[in-house]
Amino acid sequence: MKIRLITAGFGIFAALTAGGLAISGIWSKDPVPPDLAAATAWSPAQLRLPTSIETELPQFAQPSAAPARPLQPMPQLNVAIADTLLPTIEPPLANWSRDIATGETLDTVLEEAGLSATDRTEVALALGAEYDLRRLRPGHSVTVVSTMDGSPRSVALSVEDGVRIEAIFGEELATQVVTPDPEFITLAGEAVIDSSLFAALEDARMPARFAVDLAQMLGGTVDFRREMTGGETLRLLWREARVGKDRIGQPELTFASLEIGGALYEVVWPENGSGQATIYVDGTVLRVFAQPVEGARLSSVFGRRTHPVYGNVRMHTGVDFAAASGTPVQATAPGRVSFIGWRGGYGRVVEIAHGSDTMTRYAHLSAVPEGLAQGQRVAAGDVIGRVGATGTATGPNLHYEVLVDGRPTDPLSDDRLAEAAESEADDTAALLRLAETRALLNENLGSEIAETTTERL
């Protein structure tokens, strides 16, 4: 009962309070200022509608009702195919090359190039089928072309005379031999002899090996030690085979002219490769002579020497020419084969009789031509054997002897062979060759030798 009375009292009190507050708010309200009342009564003017712009719209023709066309398939486009295919992009290749050094084998060099043992074996078999690998020597070069991952593409072996043997890796390992096509050029030079032929040629930058050829040709006619006093002029004409700037093989002498003691000595070599040369003195044919080994190095002369095998001092009864095994050996004068066979330390020998009292001996031969027989007649320049190392020899060379009445004589100073060759010399043809060679020397050297020496004919 009390709770209800209390609640009702609170309700009456709240109503009376709210009514009193409302009556006090109305009675206590001040009038609004005129400016404020005018501001609150302002409203923006009514916006005017934009005037319309009359434009003449284009009149589009109404499409006429045409009969519908039947649907047809689109024509097929012809795409032109390019005549040439895009180039295949080759992987980058690495090129490795090195000369073979002394004591090295092909396998050693290929291993350094990074080839596996299997690849090295295949390359050796392929190259060995075209070239005897036992003939490898310092100066030969190996070139390996491979991809960046080390897979070989080709291996090339460059040997003498510009010949290159290539092993090409593909589906199968193939081999090819590339032989250069050399260009032959003719050169001329002039040298003044003060001390020796070798020194004069070296000073004039001409092949010093020509001194051997001159010693062979003129040794039996001119005593270089006694007759040469210094200041003599030597003129040479020779040929070289070249591929680009590289010389292939050895140079070949064509003509030599040397005036000693008022006499003019000239030598003309043929171009047919026979090695048979004609010697002239003052324009007259003296003799025809063939070198036993063309272009070889004179390694030992006639006379007493220390034997290269036995070590004691003994007489050397001939001259030695160092040359590669298999190099052709030629008869130095016309004659008749008197012996073919073996003679102790000489090894395989061929002996040729030149008349009744003169004989030449060619020793240490590796082979003799099949058609050569005892009693057969040969001419100067005919091949009668091949350089070898048979018998007592330290390496491949030709031991060449000249015997007169059975006694050895110096092959570079004896003139008996000249007598044997004189009967076969054709003076008319020989003089014509001399005139042509002089003209060629004059053309290449630019000297007056052709004019000054023609008067001696």
TrEMBL record:
It holds the Pfam family Peptidase_M23. Keywords: Hydrolase, Metal-binding, Metalloprotease, Plasmid, Protease, Zinc. It comes from the Bacteria. Its EC number is 3.4.-.-. Its cofactor is Zn(2+). One of its GO terms (molecular function) is hydrolase activity. Residues 314-411 form the M23ase beta-sheet core domain. InterPro entries: Cell_wall_metabolism_enzyme, Dup_hybrid_motif, M23ase_b-sheet_dom. CDD domains: M23_peptidase. PANTHER family: CELL DIVISION PROTEIN YTFB (PTHR21666:SF288), PEPTIDASE-RELATED (PTHR21666). This is M23 family metallopeptidase. It comes from Roseovarius phycicola.
